[in-house]
C-alpha cells in the first residue's frame, strides 16, 4: 500500500462523491417507503400513488453513479490495489439492472394491473408483478450490502496509514458491519425495516461523505 499524504483540499472526485451522496436521500424521500419484498399487493397500491416514479428513479440512478464512481476514484488515491472499488462497481451494475426493471418493466405491469376489468386477467399478472418487485427490492438490499462491505474493506485496508485519524478508520469498518446487519434484519423483520435501515445505514453513509475530506 502506498504512503498516504495528509488531506489538503476537496478534489473533483470528492465533490462528485458528495454531490451524488446528497442526491440519494433527496430521491429516497420521494420514493414510496417499501421495505418488504414479499408485499407485492401493498407495493402495487403505493407505486400507483407515486407522483413521479420515473423522475425519482432517474435522480436516484444519477446520484448513485456519482456517489459510487466518486468513492472508487477516492479509494484508488489512498489504496493500491483498491480493496473496495470492485465491490462498488459491481454494486453500481446491480443498481442499473434494478433501475431498468423498475423503469421499463414495472410501469407497464402497473398500468395493466390497474386497468384490467377482467379479474382473471389481473390475477394472471399479479404473480409477475410480485416477482419483479421482490427481485428489485431484494436486489437493492444485496447491492447496498456490497457497498457497505466495500466500506469495511477500504477502512481495514488503510488502518495504520500515516496521517489518518484512527477514529475515522475504525468508524468505517464498524459502521459497515452495522449496515450489513441492518440489511439482513430488514429482510428478516420487514415490518421494522424503516427504523432498522435508518439506524444502521446512516453511520456508513456518513462515512462515505467524510471520505473525500481524508484525501
What portion of residues belong to β-strands? Answer: under 5%
Radius of gyration: 19 Å
Shape: elongated
Mean pLDDT: 90
| Helix-strand sequence | HHHHHHH
Give helix % range. over 70%
Kindly state the number of beta strands: 0
Low-confidence stretches: 1-7
Mind describing the biggest β-sheet?
Answer: none
Q: Span between N and C termini? A: 15 Å
Helix count, per DSSP?
7
Kindly name the structural category. mainly alpha
Number of domains: 1
Which structural traits does this protein have?
215 residues; mainly alpha; 0% strand; disordered N terminus
Walk me through this protein's architecture:
There is one protein chain. The chain contains seven helices and no strands. With about 220 residues, the chain is mainly α. The protein has one domain. It is elongated. The two termini are about 15 Å apart.
Which secondary structure elements does this structure contain, and how are they paired or packed?
Elements: H1 12-29, H2 40-48, H3 53-78, H4 85-115, H5 119-157, H6 166-188, H7 193-210
Helix pairs in contact: 1-3, 2-5, 3-4, 4-5, 5-6, 6-7
Transmembrane segments: 12-31, 51-71, 83-111, 131-156, 168-188, 194-213
Organism: Bacillus thermozeamaize
Keywords: Membrane, Transmembrane, Transmembrane helix
Short description:
This is DUF4386 domain-containing protein. The chain has 215 residues and is mostly helical.
